[in-house]
Amino acid sequence: MAANSAVIALLDPDGTPSADAEQLQLRFTNVAEKLNGQMVEGTLQDTAGRTRAITLYYVERVQGDKLTWWNDIRRTAAIGASGDYVNAFSVNEGATKTTSFYPFGCVTGASQGRAVGIPPLLGPRISRIGYNADADLLYVAFDVALTGANIANSDGQGHGSAEVAVVRYDVDPIWGFRDTARQYYALFPEVYTRRAKAEGIWLPFADPTTITGASDFGFAFHEGNYTVQKDDSLGIASFRYSVPMYYEMPMDATLDRTYDAALIQLQQDANGTNKTKRQWARAVLNSGTINATDLFNVSIRSTVWNDGATWIVNPNPNIPAGRIRIPQAACSTRRRKETVSTTRRPVASSMASFSMGSRPTETFWTSTRRAWPTPLHRRPSPPIPSSPSSRMVQCLRDGRLHEPGPAQRGKLLMANGTAWRIHQFVPLVDVPGAEVEWMNNGVWRPDNDPQFNYRRTLAYQKPFLLLQNTDFTLFGSVQVEKYFQRSLFYGCFPSLFHGSGYSGYYWQTSSLYNRDRSLFVKYIPLIKQVSQAGWEPVTYASSSNPGVYLERYGKQYLTLFNLSASAITATITINLGSWGVAGSSVQIMDDISGRTWGSSPPSATRV
User: Fold this and answer.
1) Closest CA relative to residue 602, chosen from 589, 590, 585
2) Most buried among 23, 167, 271, 566, using CB within 10 Å?
3) What is the pLDDT of residues 3-13, one digit of tens each?
């Protein structure tokens, strides 16, 4: 792809060339050399003043024998003579109703490898990264909508536009996806720099001073800022709690649990005397997301914390406020300002329920589409513009807490529900985390390797926190130890929360945490060690047994995971030169058991 030109082939839905290809322009705004590759940025511009749904492809010819497509750091697929290879999940939007899990992808051959991707701060995009064997093309596809009605992405004269960007570089064919990730982090160091220096587990809401011997458990991140001074005395970081993506409206017990009844109450609250209800109701009327049938996206449900309606809203601060309405962002901002830290350490922010954005929820509200600051997405049928639930990505991108600002300077952001699907979240979060449930109805079902690979790859060396929700009378010490062991392998910090129905709070039940105290004392310091060393995608190590997985942390630690339920043997080969310790005296030790495996030559240096 040249810096000042491109071949644009505009096709109609049936695949034939379109007659109005000349009505689109692709203008390159920047071609930057980055390491051994390039980043190409451009703007797709409509010149006819039409609303369009477009899929824009960036392609590279990649040919060779025995080509391999990489799905993640551990899974590959041999490329055949035909077919499309892509690691994606289903959504409601885009030409194919799919979008890629990862922001990059790669194909390798016997002696070479090639990667393409999209920059981590490009913003919300429905995009697919894949390889088409029929055409021998490695590609990035962007599904965008062009409309002059979108203020931020038009020229003011009715011509819509969309910014796109692609990174491209060679990769080591031996390490494939791992080397793709390694170079991607190096391309964008400002995004992948670890800002949260603390090492430890997630404490959800409980007062740490009510937990006997709290120092044994390794608390580092407290979700909830009502015990800031107590947290500070124990060296625990406090995070304000906020849920900016929806409003849970309690409904009167006498009302029917229907859409119409919920809407009537919302409208009454918007004009009522209760200030809090009035503000939130007006925020929903102004910023609530709308579906294709012109109805609000809302669910009627009864939970422990709310019996009523949950309105899905758009926290985009660019949405203008109407005469009696206020933007959702105003309510979210007000909530974040409720408590001001009086300690020497700043209180950071915690956002919950990011998983509500894991599947795009489109909005057809005209004011929302007008104010959306990044290019709109296209729907498959009919191909019309919509705004996605990845609205949270834009909200975070425009107000990253660690960057200078009147109310944000020096803050960190912790977020629950990250790294399930949408990759754009994690680069914007300092402390990503996820609630999990590994024992449902007494059946042990841990998160699988692809899910953990996704978390670790997207987070890189940021601390990733887990919070177990289950029945802790069934999830006993045996399961807790297995949970800790798996977390140690992937360098994640494990914690525990509650059972079903928000009952059986782990950290408020001394019999539970005392039962498992010795396991925390044994494993959390080890997880701290590997987390502090920092996960490195390229292991420079191999196992003779495919049933033994390996991960590397810094220049000191290699974690091993046995997939089987019984003991197995494997020969582990480590390239000490690539680890940066060639010529040194090294000693191989098992930090869990304290056993020495060997040394070469005998010395006290540990690897």
Assistant:
1) 585
2) 167
3) 333 455 566 55
Strand order in the sheet with 246-250: 246-250, 307-312, 298-302
What gap in Å lies between CA 14 and CA 31, rounded to an integer? 33
Q: Using the 8-state DSSP alphabet, how is residue 72 labeled?
A: S
HSE-CB for 406 with a 13 A CA cutoff: 2
List the chain domain ranges. 21-192, 243-346+356-411, 539-600
Contact in structure between 520 and 218 (CB atoms under 8 Å): yes
pTM for this prediction: 0.87
E-assigned strand segments in 62-97? 68-70, 76-78, 84-86, 88-90
Identify which of 293-307, 328-342, 495-509, 512-526 has the greatest average pLDDT.
Answer: 512-526
Distance CA(132)–CA(83), nearest Å, equals 6
Q: Give the confidence band of 500 by pLDDT, cuts at 50, 70, 90.
A: low
Q: What angle do CA 117, 144, 118 make, to 5 degrees?
A: 10
Token pair of 373 as six digits: 């600051």
Q: Are 554 and 533 in contact (CB under 8 A)?
A: yes
Could you give the 3-state DSSP secondary structure of residue 329? helix
Q: Is the dihedral of CA 454, 460, 461, 462 positive or negative?
A: negative
Amino acid at 437: E
Rounded Cα–Cα distance for residues 426 and 304 (Å): 29
Looking at every residue in the chain, the average pLDDT score rounds to 83
Q: How does DSSP classify residue 606?
A: B
For the chain, give the longest Cα–Cα distance. 79
What's the CA angle centered on 248, arms 423 and 255, to 5 degrees? Answer: 145
How far is 87 from 137, CA to CA, in rounded Å?
Answer: 16
| Whole-Å CA distances, 273 to 27, 579, 602 | 53, 66, 78
Distances from the Cα of 93 to the Cαs of 142, 147, 299, 527, in angstroms? 12, 17, 20, 39
Q: Exposure string (b/e) for 108-127, b if CB count within 10 Å is 16 or more?
A: bbeeebbbbbbbbebbbbbb
| Torsion over CA: 529, 449, 90, 38 (sign) | positive
Choose among 71, 89, 80: nearest CA to 180. Answer: 71
CA distance 321 to 149: 17
Reported residue count of the chain is 607
Q: Rounded to an integer, what distance in angstroms lies between the CA atom of residue 202 and that of residue 329?
A: 27
